[in-house]
Amino acid sequence: MRIISGQFKGRRITAPKKLPVRPTTDMAKEALFNILNNQYYFDSVTVLDLFAGTGNISYEFASRGTEHITCVDQDYGCIKFINQTAASFEMPIQTIKSDVFKYLENSKQQATIIFADPPYDFPVEEFAKIPELVFENNLLETDGLLVVEHSKHTDLSQLKHYAYSKSYGGNTFSFFENDTSDEEE
């Protein structure tokens, strides 16, 4: 994997083969950041990277100037790799070794952008827990965005707070937003 843009543009990062990960492809990552770049100034956002894996998405945010990044993953090897990589690049990435669902249930820390890349073989019910917990616990800032990466064969459009999806190859990003119309009901 490589960093697409920013201070560390072009740098390659090689994760150990034994990690239980499926990094977001460069093509999909570039498309995602083109969308986000039109909505946010990266140096003024707070990012929460769930199911962080190799830290691929977090490195991209850090390279683009984001200073508040938290990665959550339950695999010790992934957390160790992210810590080592972040230290070698002097990136401001904090890691938390935790089950993502337990973290979402207990966290009070809001973020501007929450990115979740759970295993593609999750049943829809497991995918549904992510936005459910994020919005129930008010973890997304008012103008924030929850992005869930999944297979193009998974449809999350029926979930509450769903806004839209974009597909790139076999990857799909579903975007979820705070819905002010819910508050008026």
UniProtKB/TrEMBL annotation:
KW Cell membrane (keyword) present: no
GO molecular function, one term: methyltransferase activity
InterPro entries (UniProt xref): DNA_methylase_N6_adenine_CS, RNA_MeTrfase_RsmD, SAM-dependent_MTases_sf
Listed name of the protein: 16S rRNA (Guanine(966)-N(2))-methyltransferase RsmD
GO biological process, one term: rRNA methylation
Annotated source species: Olleya aquimaris
Alphabetical UniProt keywords: Methyltransferase, Transferase
Bilayer-crossing regions: none
Presence of keyword Zinc-finger: no
NCBIfam families: 16S rRNA (guanine(966)-N(2))-methyltransferase RsmD (TIGR00095)
One Pfam assignment: Cons_hypoth95
